[in-house]
Methanethiol oxidase (Branchiostoma lanceolatum), 483 residues
Amino acid sequence: MFVCFYVDKKCDGHVDSCGPGYHTPLDAMKAPREQIVYLPCIYRNTGIDRPDYVATLDVDPKSPTYSKVIHRLEVPNMKDELHHTGWNACSSCFGDPSKRRNRLICPGLVSSRIYVIDTGTNPRAPSIHKTVEPTEVYWKTGLANPHTTHCLGSGEIMISTIGDPSGNAKGGFILLDGETFEVKGNWESPGDGTEFGYDFWYQPRHNVMISTEWGHPKLWAYGFDPQHYADGKYGQSLHVWDWTTHKRIQDIDLGPEGAIPLEIRFLHNPEEPQGYVVCALSSNVFRFYKTLRGDWAAEKVIDVPSKKVEGWALPEMPGLITDILISMDDRFLYFSNWLHGDVRQYDITDRRNPKMVGQLFLGGSICKGGPVQVTHDVELDQQPDPLVLNGQVKCSAPQMLQLSLDGKRLYVTTSLFSAWDKQFYPAMIKEGSLMFIVDVNTDVGGLSLNEDFLVDFGQEPHGPVLAHEVRYPGGDCSSDIWL
C-alpha cells in the first residue's frame, strides 16, 4: 500500500504542484478564503416527497449571489437521508500530484446508497459521477448505514458504518477504490467489528485510529427514546485500532458520563497523540490521549450541566452536544449544544483544562417565551432570548459546524437528523432549517453573529428542507488529515 509520507521540497502549497490539500495545518490557514460550499439537503420526514439534493452555496461576500443557493444537484432516489460527506483525496496525499480533490462522497445514512459527486469539472454546478447501490455495500461488507468518510494516503476511501442490512447495530468500515469507487470490502480485520459504530479519525504517526458509537439504526431512525439507552441500545465507548494491522486493540468504556460519544477529532498536528470527543446524551467532552505505557485513555475535561425544566419531555434537559471542531492551529475547540441552543468556543492551549472564551445562543429549547420553563440553571441567570428573524421566532438550534481554514468564520446549520428534528424541533420540519455565519475573534476569543449572512432553507423551490453538513472545495477542519 502506497502512503504519501514524502513531500517534495519544491511544493509551494498549491494543489496543482503537489496534490490535494496543504503541507501542514498552518499552511492551510493561509489558503484563500472559501467562495462556495456544498451541503446536503434532506426531505425525508418532512412530508415532501422529493429526493435529497446537494446544494452549492455562494459564500463570497463580493459576489452578487452571496448567501444564495446557486445550484441544486438532485439525486435520483427518495429518502436516502444524505448526511455526512467527505472527499476522495485530502492533505493525507499532499505529496502525490496524481491525486485531486474532485469527488465529494455522499453516503445515504438510511438507504446505504453512496453517491460520488463530480465537483472538479464544474465546481459551481456539480454532477453525479457514480452511484454505489446498497446491494453492493451489503454483499461485499455485511455492513449498512454509512456515516463518516475519510480519504486515505493510499488513495482509497474509507467510510464508517453504524448498522447491518437488518437495522441492527454493527460498527465497521467500508473501503472504496479511489479511482473506480467500487466497494473493495471491509477495512477492519475479520471478527474485529464493534457492536456500535459512528465516527472515526486516524493518525498514522501513532499507528492508531479511534472510532465512536451511536446506536441501533432501527431505533434512532425513528426518533430518540431515553429508555433505549438505559436498555443498552446506545453506546458509551471508544474503540482503538492498530492502523497497520486493522485490528481492534483496545476499548475505552466512558461510562454514563460518556453516553453516546459521537464526533471525534484528533488535534491537527500529526505529532500530537491526543484529541477530543463529544458525548451527546451526557453532554460532556472527553480528552483522549496516549499514555506513557503506550495504550490510550480518556478523561472528562468539559461538563455541560443539564437544566431542570418544566414543560418538556423530561424533568432535566441535557445540552445534547452534537458536533465539535478544532481550529487548524489547535488553539480553539468549538461545539454545539443542540437542545440548549448555544455554540461554545474554548481555548485549549492547556489541553487538560479547556477555558470557555466564547458563547452564542442561536435559538434552542430554553428560550424566553417558549413552552419550556427553566427552574434551575447553574450556568445562566435567565433564559436566553429567542432567535427572531424578520420578526418571526425561529424554532431551531445550532447543530453542524464548519470552521474556515483561517479560523475566522464558523458556518452553522440547524438540522441534526430528520427523525430527531421532527421530534425535538417540529416547527423546523415545517419552516426548514437555517444556516448562519458566526464571526470568530481569534485573538482573545469571542463569537458574534454575522448579520449580513443568512440562508433560510424554508424558501427552497420545492418547499422547506433540512440542510446538514458544510464542505469547502479546498478542504476543511473536519476532513483533512495530515500524515
Observations:
- Residues 15-467 form a domain with the Methylamine Dehydrogenase; Chain H fold (CATH 2.130.10.10).
- The radius of gyration is 21 Å.
- The first strand starts at residue 36 and ends at 42.
- Residues 134-141 form the longest helix (8 residues).
